[in-house]
Structures
1.
Amino acid sequence: MRVFANLDEFAATKGEHLGFGEWHEVTQDEINLFADATGDHQWIHVDLEKAAAGPFGAPVAHGYLTLSLIPMLVRDVYTVQGLKMGVNYGLNKVRFPSPVVVGSRVRAGAELVEVADVAQGKQAVVRVTVEIDGNPKPGCVAETVVLLVA
């Protein structure tokens, strides 16, 4: 965990890789809950028998489930002290280069790409790569945009 004393110290690391978070196992329960929350019950995610005979040999996490894990996965990478709040502002670019098969372990790596002063504090673009243990291709690469208010 990389700890920044304030927003200025964080901004000074623009262009740097901030580190990696802890590994997290993607479970079928998580996939099923996500399917229920979104209404996306495609067989490749929730039908164990059919998915086992499918192209990946097992159910795979929804791409958007992998994307939605980013806040949890990044919380172990870095923190900025003294913030009143951090708000997800959006995404610039998202890709899902490799499927995340149920039972896979994933973790986030983060790089501070851009930082801009805004009225409330700073707006940062953080490129997050969701790695899959044992797979050379990541499950997700996303440029997240966050508003950091001190």
2.
Amino acid sequence: MGETPTADLDDVAVEEPLELRLVQGEEERPLSVTLRTPGADEDLVLGLLYAEGAIACADDVLSLSVWRRGDVSAPNVVRVELRSGFAALDILARRTFTSSACGVCGAGSIERLALRARPPLWSGPPLSPALVARLPSGLRARQPLFTATGGMHAAGLFTPEGECLAVREDVGRHNAVDKVIGWALRAGCLPLSDHLLAVSSRAGFEVVQKAVLAGVPVVCAMSAPTSLAVEVAQGFGVTLIGFARGARFNVYSGPERLGKF
């Protein structure tokens, strides 16, 4: 009260469309448009195509590049050539998963997920609760865009010892997960057995769905899970942790992978 208004510059989260075009020979067809934060676009595209069933490994992508004509480029347009060619359009039409972002989800999505899901494997000793408690700070320390804007989600991939392998930020939490899984695809790490996926957001269906497809056995969210996320985690054998904030967290499924508190 009583303070004088001031004018200043502020950093805001960047949100721009990314158009994906499928190429076969000299022909080109539009595939999808998604809103994302520019950066790690190759990882995003690979993760998205993998989640939608268009590719099974990085070798299924013959080329991936920013659209260019002469000296003119369009950084928000990516052209991708797949081994399957335009057949991928039919695959995507049959297998596209709905998410809570479009307000439609349910048994049909779970049934389609079951056709491609792989059992998540955890071969090591029980996961240390102290390590889980350190994940939020480990993720937060690698979020420069959130530090600058306060408006970004993040997803991070960790080993059972707590080593951080990759972190990606984006305005969309599902995009951040796609970027991390795309990174893992390029690195030849899939399936992600014995890995932890940490997300700075709530754990909705689309986050757990993508984890299941990548073979992630443990998902740790800084915020709340949704009922469908819990159902999917329980049904597909994923350890789902929510409200991970310091020394306290809730375990919604798969408690057997955790050691003694």
